[in-house]
Amino acid sequence: MTPKNLENQVALPKAIRQHMDAIQRKILVMSGKKGVGKTTVIIELAQALASMGSDTGILDADLSDPSVAKILQEETPFPCMEQTNNPRKISFHLRIADFNAPLEDHARSVVITDLLAYTDWGALDYLFIDTPPGVKEEHLAICQNIPELTGAIIVATGQASSILDTIRSVVFCRKMGIAILGLIENMGAQKGAYIARKTEIPFLGSLPLKEGGHEGIKIDQTVSTIAQKLEESMTCSSVSER
After folding, report:
1. pTM of the predicted model as reported, rounded to 2 decimal places
2. Which residues contact 202 (CB under 8 A, 6 or more apart)?
3. What is the pLDDT of residues 26-82, one digit of tens each?
4. Burial code of 44-54, b = ≥16 C-beta within 10 A, e = fewer?
5. Buried/exposed 64-96: b ≥16 CB within 10 Å, e otherwise
6. Helix (H), strand (E) counts: the chain
7. Beta partners for 154?
8. Given its phi and psi angles, is residue 239 left (phi above 0), alpha (psi -120 to 50 degrees) or beta?
């Protein structure tokens, strides 16, 4: 091991601890498959919490397709890792960070570790970590670097396959010892409560199908209700593993 590698082995975990200790709640956001609108849901939820006065951040950890900045119409340059230490402010209470650059598969865990080490969020009430669909190297790297994760939110649709997709996420969380905060159904099939019962996880609410795709992200009453429900559960009681 070179002196530089040895230095990083000590310095990076220390930096991650320093940043994460300033964040009250670190929440992993998962979906069993692509195309469920997970990123849009989490942006809306983060914006709703920010509008309620919570200091909130979104770390886009979908390294194959980082889309938070694109959906929010924020310019995303190809940064050097050291340039990610200033998350972009979307509003007074909402910040985002990502790494939008060409990337080899074997480098994913390294990039996640560096993102967590170099990104200085300051004090936050919530950090949502938007992850790729399924279970990939990014998820493992996040769990290894943030073992104290508050919990996970799973986003699904009302399709019949969603139960199997949700089960995969649930199995991963339980294997890793991550509390499941709840399921959010997107695109309004009104089957989210059924999927939650079948997978034995809490149901946070159902969001309707929106016209216009990603355009015009806005906070509606349903999103605000889900945000309030999540905030109350985080504030009023400790999360028990389900």
Report:
1. 0.88
2. 180, 181, 182, 183, 196, 233, 242
3. 999 999 888 899 999 999 999 999 999 999 999 999 988 889 988 888 766 655 555
4. bbbbbbbbeeb
5. eebbbbbebeeebeebebeebbebbebeebbbb
6. 8, 8
7. 30, 183
8. beta
Q: What are the pLDDT digits (tens) for 211-225? A: 554 444 455 678 889
Q: Which residues pair with 151 in a beta bridge?
A: 27
* CA–CA distance, 37 with 50 (Å, rounded to integer): 20
CATH topology of domain 3-233: Rossmann fold (3.40.50)
Axis crossing angle, helix 137-145 with helix 108-118, rounded to the nearest 10: 40
DSSP codes, 178-214: --EEEEEE-SS-S-HHHHHHHHT--EEEE----TTTT
Structure tokens at 224: 């605000």
Maximum separation of any 2 CA atoms in the chain, in Å: 56
Residue 22's φ and ψ, nearest 5 degrees, are -90, 0
